Structure formats: structure tokens, C-alpha cells
Amino acid sequence: MFDMTDPRPVRRLFHAAAALCTAVLATRGVAEAADEHAAVKAMSEFRSGAQEKTVIQNKFFVKENRFEVAPAIGIMPNNAFVTNVYGGAMLAYHFSETFAAEGTFLYAPNTGEAGVKGLTKTLVLIAHDTGTGNFQQPLDRLQLGAMFAARWSPVYGKINLIGEGVVNFDVYGTGGVGLLLMTKDTATYNDDFGSDELASPVQVDPAAPSAAYPAVNVGMGINFFVNQSIAIKLDGRSAIYVAPEPDYGNNEGVELENRLYTPFLTTAGVSIFFPKMKPRYNF
User: Which of 53, 183, 203, 211 is most deeply packed, by most CB within 10 A?
Assistant: First the structure.
């Protein structure tokens, strides 16, 4: 039986009720504080912009404050008349993970008749068979090239190709200026063709001294990182320059007009980064 004359149970009940009210108020205070903190954070992000979140964690390769040397070989695939194979090297300095300055230097040997493509031979033979004896096919090909550009690398990622193997890569774009030295050869009909079984249907002769043209270059490339000092590089860029239009041998006394040329330069090489990379860190 509950004895109303005994004050101790009443005091115990009062203390329990007071403790319960205190707990409810404290929980409400914590919730209100959390809501207030979230509201302040949301307002701060609204005013200053949300902080950028980096998706790639524990980045495998760091380029900042490092040099890059990339010996490479390449071809000019959009030259329909002659095969243009060249070698060279790229040198770059990476100011940050996304920005670098680079210089590219290329040299292509003149392969003469051996580098003439089938289209050139066909055009020369057609001109000979139709009686256009003075026809000549211009063969402008890269001899030397020097290009200087800024490089921007906005994309870094990882690919899981086979099993547990992960390949790290980055994609970059380039833009800059340069100087191209072009040979000025022509392909004409070879009179020995037919009488000599080994003779080529065309002969290649220099039409004029090599000419240098300032150019603008734009392009993009991708690096596949093998380890923390070596990467496989694929690069492609267009070199845009202005030069006189082609002379097919029927422009005597006529001044040639200028036109726009856009040779496309593709290279594949191996990039070597130095000095040694600092210990890997998280972003």
C-alpha cells in the first residue's frame, strides 16, 4: 500500500519527473544546436560556394614541380601524297597538377621516292596518259618543327583493365605557337618507267628551297602512368599555318594566293619524370 503520510515516495517521484524533463530538454537542445550548425554551414556555403570535393583519393602519380622528357616518334596521317615519319622529343615543366609549359621538337628525314604514296603515283600517271606533260604534284612535307605550348590537364582517373591491375591516366589539352620548316618537292613522271622494270613511275625533285612558316598549334593527349617516374604518352595536335597554294606546273606568270594548311601531327612516346616523386599523399 502507498502510504500518503510518508513523504519519501513523493520526493522520489518528484526527482524522477525532474530528471526526465531535464533529459528531454537536453536532447532538444542538442537537436536545436545541430540544426543551427547545419543552417550556418548551409548559409556559409551559399555565400562563399561549396568546397570542391576530389573524387580520386590516394593519388598514385604527382607531377607538380617536376620536369618531363618524352622521346617520341610520329606520323602525319592527313598528308595524302607522301609518308611523313618523324622523331623528336617533348620537354615540359609542371607548375601544378593541372598546368604545365612545354616545348616540342621534331625532325623528319626526306625519304624521296620511297615516301611517295599511291595517290601521287596515280595522279602523275593519269596526267601523263592524258597528255598533261607539264603536270607536277607538290610534295610539301615536314622537315623540322618547333612548338611551344601551354598544357592543361583537367582529367585524372583510374582504369581497372584486367583483374586487380589498375592503370592511372590523365588527359590534357595543349595550345601554343611554333615554327615549321617544310620541304618544297614535286613529283613528276619518270621517263625511265616502262623501259626499266625497277624504275618508279614518279621522280621527286626539289622545286624550291625549304620554307619556314609560323604556326599555331592546338591538340590533346593522354598519359598512362606505368610507375611514379614513367608514363606512356599518346599525343595529337594540328599545326595551322598560311602558305602559297599548290603549284601544279600550270601557274607560270600567275601569282599564287595564300591558303590555310592544317597538318595533323600524331606522336607516341615514353615520358620520363624527374626529380623523384615525393612520397605519395592523399588529396
Answer: 183
- List phi, psi (to 5°) of 245: -65, 160
Other residues' Cβ atoms within 10 Å of the Cβ of residue 86: 20
Beta bridge partner(s), residue 120: none
Bridge partners of 264? 238
> Does any domain span residue 115?
yes
**What's the residue count for the chain?**
283
C-alpha cell belonging to residue 154: 583537367
Residue 18 lies in a domain: yes
Q: Which residues contact 57 (CB under 8 A, 6 or more apart)?
A: 282, 283
209 cis-preceded (ω within 30 degrees of 0): no
Decide: 62 and 97 in contact? Cβ < 8 Å.
Answer: yes
Q: Domain containing 167: what range?
A: 66-274
Write the pLDDT tens digit of every residue in 56-75: 455 678 899 999 999 999 99
* Domain co-membership, 193 together with 240: yes
3-state secondary structure of 157: strand
Backbone angles phi, psi at 40, to 5 degrees: -65, -40
Q: pTM, whole model, 2 decimals?
A: 0.74
